[in-house]
Amino acid sequence: MRKIRIDANTYVYPNPVTLVGTKVEGRANFMAVGWVSRVNRKPPLIGIGVNRVHYTAKGIQETKTFSINFPSADMAESVDYCGMVSGKKVDKSNIFETFYGSLKTAPMITESALCMECKLFDTVELPANHFFIGEIVTCYTEEKYLTDGNLDIKKMNPLLLTMPDKSYWTVGEYAGKAWSIGKKLQR
Amino acid sequence: MRKIRIDANTYVYPNPVTLVGTKVEGRANFMAVGWVSRVNRKPPLIGIGVNRVHYTAKGIQETKTFSINFPSADMAESVDYCGMVSGKKVDKSNIFETFYGSLKTAPMITESALCMECKLFDTVELPANHFFIGEIVTCYTEEKYLTDGNLDIKKMNPLLLTMPDKSYWTVGEYAGKAWSIGKKLQR
Q1: Which of A71, A72, A107, B169 is 20 to 30 Å apart from A152, CA to CA?
Q2: Which residues of A touch B182 (CB under 8 A)?
């Protein structure tokens, strides 16, 4: 075995790239977030890891709502910009066309292939971050992103991120059917 | 705007694919987990969403340790098999070559490009799942997966998963430099 040890602060390969939408001090704000995962099926819960000093944390705590938007690769420059500047200093409300759903305080991005409107379910306080768990109330997409009624990742063309090399990636080739190709190994 | 509403139980696009290693009732077990995210930088914390009835949950609760292994796309059949059958019924200890690190009870997969050895930091109890938060103690890789000292996702060739279409995908093309391409939008 040729294993070597590397920094324990190693990231997930790859991180999905999302834009988290909040309303802070009365205006829409968007932050790039790669620390995101579904955490429960019923009710549908999703969590995001956000440093507690971020403007986004303030918005979630104030409104108890947020959105998670999946940008396509052609939005990469705007996504990157949202990850570089803080809403404390820069007004990010006009970078994207936005809309609101039933929660009224979770701004969503019209150009985004998939928008999840979330209401705060729980906040896990960690040493530096809050892990905000939201219940997904409504998901929004457009017909053009669907194939046979399901979201089609090749039509969505989402962004991936790797760290610490700070690189964006697209999704590549189809690599097999889940809950299926493993049957070969069943006896 | 042509937005339509879809099922609130919509997944992250895409989910990274990992194999979570545990020692349960004395033997190594591996479960396919796509609900995974880093949640804190210092200390390096990572969380996984696992249904509380899973054999893996039992192993984590017993040993307070687990591993997260990133399989390459050529391991897709074995990964899928690990997602289809429960360690309660099937011995999955011999599917992969395994090794142990300093924690002694977190089996890792030799064929995996990246293995994270974790000790349980916190358990968030959700309606159906436990969200297990682990502190990453050590990460293991091999020289062949590195470029300029960093993990190279194209050499790792990890798997992605989309649901509900149950499809595996590979990582595609490089799509730009993070914390860089957004500078065009700065005034």
Answers
A1: A107
A2: 77-84
